[in-house]
Batch of 2 targets.
Target 1
Amino acid sequence: MTALDAVSVYTPAFRVPLEDLAEPLGLTDIQVRLFRRFHGLDRIRFDPDRSLGELLRAAVDGLTALRGREDRVRYVVHGRAMPVVAPYPHNPLHDLCRELGLGHALAFTVTQQSCASGLLAVELAGRLLAADPTEGALALVLTGEKAFTRDAQLLPGTSLFGEGSAACLVSADGPRDRLLSYACAQRGEFDAEFGEQSERFQREYRSSLAEVMRRAVAEAGLALDDIRLVLPHNVNVVTWQRLCLLMDFPVQRVLLSNVPDHGHLFCADAFANHRTATEGGLLREGDHYLVATVGAGAGATFSAMVFQH
């Protein structure tokens, strides 16, 4: 059974107030007030002095469980929202693997599900490990990227992207944070390039995510009442308030405290929220929790996972 043996997260100390982003992003005063008062965003984290490779390295440096076990890492998977992050022939992921002594591992990136690619990376890592005959084999899942353009920083009317990274050591039979189910719905008709489909995406967003969350819970053999905590993608607060109303689920059991202070960290949201939950004592041994996220780009992906802590 796929398990998260260890999770490390890096979030930059440098924060930018929304008002300071208005001019570079072309936001009006009304749009800034909308993000702050309605969506619950306050400051966005950035690390202007680190490259993508350095951003990922910062998370790996905190992954103490990896030290001395590098030879057991068979796979390195980078879950990423952006399809292109460096000019050819540069490859920050392969460069990082060489730095870490992981040049022997099969390293690749998944971007096909946009911001839901982080959960896809965990699921793929688990499948690869289940089929690997090497005893004690491990996978390293990385998330995080640079908000390097306006399109990479702004989700119009919905959220603002920040920078951060996460590193997860994944095993096939770990004792904690064991994956019980994974549900995913890919909706190619929700192509953001076409206005009318974008409007339909907004109309069906919450019901589509609710359906995937319910399916993940059911496939885990549980009921919604059994879920101690939901670790969301940090798009905004109001989306989750309305989704909880739709699902009749207490919004107090959705970890939203990172939304004002982080912004949307691409695929790293789930793991940043995992750190907050574990460090804050919000999850006890044996608790079930649900991770949910949406990726939007050339179509949309709605994903959810249920874990036992």
Target 2
Amino acid sequence: MSAEFPSSPGRGGPLLSLRGISKSFGAVAALTEVDLDVAAGQVVALVGDNGAGKSTLVKVLSGVHQPDAGAIGFAGRSVTVPSPAAAQRLGIATVFQDLALCENLNVVENLFLGRELRGLRLDEVAMEVRARALLGELSAGIPSVRAPVATLSGGRRQTVAIARTLLGDPRVIILDEPTAALGVAQTAEVLNLIERLRDWGLGVVMVSHNMADVRAVADTVAVLRLGRNNGVFDAAGTSASDLVAAITGATDNVVSRRATRDRGQAS
């Protein structure tokens, strides 16, 4: 499949574009001709019931899975994402729900794991200075960059995971259920962080089941149902009930009943 992508994406225009993405596992079609646009400085919530295809789409974007069909555009050009490393080099970072943090290491060690700063030896001072600066910009509220990750709250662990991706200078960040299992205060911290990422001009894809969180920070809501697009909505102008209807298929049922009724009246 060929696709044309805008040559000069900017704020308000698509930075990341998916066109006709399909992916099957044997006889099971996980995604069928899915489209998605993410602009710089925009939060797009990706929602849908379990089995809707959200996880598969995230893995396609992050290079874990390869699509069977379709095209991916990034910064105005057609690209392939053959591996997670390729996604990171491209500028697409993903924070999965399990966070992949090492609880036996401290904050600095987690931030720089696999990308340690070295001169003749490990430059612990430079890493600590950079960690403090980054977490300060994020208003993270982490008491010490030398604190073991195991001692941090769920919200602050989420912050560390997001901060780690920022060290790679991404342009799009995908967050897989970033507020799942968090308390009210911790959820507020994470939502504030997502707003900060948007203000910095990053494109953010937030996978979530929580409609309150979606409506709090998302600009656009993209609904997947049974592996297909089932609507793109303005978050501020769409009611929670309308979003739930698109997710569950109630909207489709209403349309179907109306069409059946109209056919009956015409006969």
